[in-house]
Amino acid sequence: MSDPKFVLCQDCLKLKPFTDARHNCEEQCECGGDFCGCLYCQETIEALMAGETKAEVLGTKCDVSGWTAERGRDVIE
From what superkingdom does this record's organism come (predicted)? Predict the structure, then answer.
């Protein structure tokens, strides 16, 4: 796998360009969540970008809807 290009907010699932500061939790998302750019999160990012919404595929706590890289997600409870 190539170098990560994005980090994923662990709360709202918003994407931002990868930086070490974001990946190391030195810079937080606007929502207050921490970013991560690990291999597991890169797989989640790829699935989200491919249109996946199911929690069991994404590895999220619940299904998502209305996701965009810029805005993050809406939660289906």
Answer: Bacteria
